[in-house]
Amino acid sequence: MTELKNDRFLRALMREPVDVTPVWMMRQAGRYLPEYRASRAKAGDFMGLCTNPEAACEVTLQPLERYPLDAAILFSDILTIPDAMGLGLYFETGEGPRFKKPVRTEADIRALKVVDPHKDLPYVVDAVSTIRRELNGRVPLIGFSGSPWTLATYMVEGGSSKDFRRAKTMAFNQPEVMHQLLTVLADSVIAYLNAQIEAGAQAVQIFDTWGGALSHAAYQEFSLAYMQRIVSGLIREREGRRVPVILFTKGGGQWLELLADTGADALGLDWTTDIGQARSRVGKRVALQGNMDPTMLYASPDRIRSEVGQILASYGSGSGHVFNLGHGITPEVDPAHAGAFIDAVHQLSATYHQ
Question: Which keywords fit this entry according to its UniProt record (predicted)?
């Protein structure tokens, strides 16, 4: 077991003392980096990168060569599980992910089987072990999955959606069918994340991208309950230390107390929730991750630095904060602005940890 040279990310998730607030960015390996675009062109397409463990490792490490980030995150996609279920994932230029065989009927859902990550997604497991080896203890590695509800929306809609008409109609008219789908997805996510942890992931994040599209009652029934099931089924200790679990519901700031009740170690916040208010609501039950508006990275470096300072001040002194964007970094961002953001977090946060 290689000793971690920089463990402030893991320490902050456990609300242990750190010297500065750790920072990473969702989608930090991505299209805003010219070296990523070159790697993707060489691989042929996005899935060519995802399914090649060496290529996935290469692009995972690219942002770490540029910036003093405090964590690496596995380069993959949230839709690997439905793809492994045989739905035929492909990417339409300008339109995002699509499935050749969406699930629309009870018979479609009954035909689905829980994914065996070692048999059905070996390229992800191999990528995790490859990245962990190449990191050689530089920073921790984050594994991840989409939430059951988020995966279900893509599977039922057949791709992205603005109103989730088909998925919500199934949930409201045939809740037992939707629950059957969500159960097989939750059990697949448990197996998938545990395989990532066993392969070397030192923390895991569940991306509930579309949970915020649900009503209060529907969120608890169709999203939160299944994330709770996952948290309860995960390996929580490995290599002699805690494996923290981060839950991130985009648009879910009104449900922080419910999310904290799941037993997760940290909650991700989008930029619509004030982090200081969130801290007062959850107390010492969980750490918080976030939450600068990604489009702030289009502003000047001075304005970015000012925004970082405001968020740090809102959170206040002490550990338990992992700085991040409120969602993923966007492709048109100047890499120099991302660097200014990361440097500002480290420089301005030290005073809050004395």
Answer: Cytoplasm, Decarboxylase, Lyase, Porphyrin biosynthesis
